[in-house]
Amino acid sequence: MLTFQEIIGHENIKEHFQRVIREQKVSHAYMLVGEAGMGKKSLADAFALTLLCEKGRMEPCMECHACKQVLAGSHPDLVYVTHEKPGSIGVDEIREQINDSVMVRPYSSSYKIYIVDEAEKMTSQAQNALLKTLEEPPSYVVILLLADSQESFLPTILSRCVQLKLKPLRDSVVRGYLTGNLGVAEGEADIYAAFARGNLGKAVQIASSEDFRNMYQEVLHLLKHIRDMDISELLDYIRKLKEDSVDIQEVLDFMLMWYRDVLLYKVTTDINLLIFKDEYGKFKEISDRSSYDGLKRILEAIDKAKVRLNANVNMELAMELMLLVMKEN
User: Fold this and answer.
1) What angle do CA 28, 117, 200 make, to 5 degrees?
2) Residue 146: beta bridge partners?
3) I need a surface site. Which of 49, 89, 98, 280 has the fewest CB within 10 A?
4) pLDDT digits (tens, 9 = 90+) for 11-47
5) In angstroms, rounded to a whole number, what is the distance separating the alpha carbons of residues 67 and 50?
6) Cβ atoms within 10 Å of 143's Cβ, excluding its own
7) Among candidates 224, 171, 223, 229, which has minimal Cα distance to 200?
């Protein structure tokens, strides 16, 4: 569990939490919104840890009895709401874990804190049950809803929460963490940071993923040699992707990054602007033989493949059509 100081980025949210603690204006309900891996749980944990700390500072002391209980997962006034079904949080779970205990005063703290991860999975009935608590919460209650998006929430839930949206980190921040904390080589860190799009958790995950590294090497080989491959080799490649259960959307995202670098090099010839800096020689070769219109057709073909796959078009067909455009241009 991290303190505010140890969390990378999200300065506006950390400052908000520390300000309301300092001014003693803590709200009863917060909603932290951002895709998985961006740090919602770390921020919620740091806020809870700071609120429950016996020293009452802007950062938890990590030494008092309350801090040690939180770190050990045994603080009686901190409740993590759980759910059995992976796809939904039901009304009974909200009633049993929040509503039935919310009127019981804190055992050893000024606050009683409930953290609901994956809160977007609450059913409408569960949200309505929670709404009863949010409408008239006891003075000591703080509820933290962690969600990937706000789309599935009732307007009445949203209106009763302080909404805090996590923003992507700068690529340089993610890259610095990967190289400085995980020892990732700079060239690879550039690729992981760009691929993660500001999501530090995702960047850390792919940097340590053997599956991603294998996908990266295979797709890189294809992109560098597609002009010289015949149709049977392309079809074999598609079959291998299917057999290996590779995430095709990740493959397409990787291809988009590659061809945007090719286009960027063709326009600027500036190596420093590239994600794949080590491949500038290949980019020069491809940009010399590819027209702007050809590169545009390739990028459009990749986007079209993504749309087709989302519409459940046959994977082999969608990939074959895209690869043929890439080969021809």
Assistant:
1) 110
2) 32
3) 280
4) 999 999 999 999 999 999 999 999 999 999 999 999 9
5) 8
6) 25
7) 171
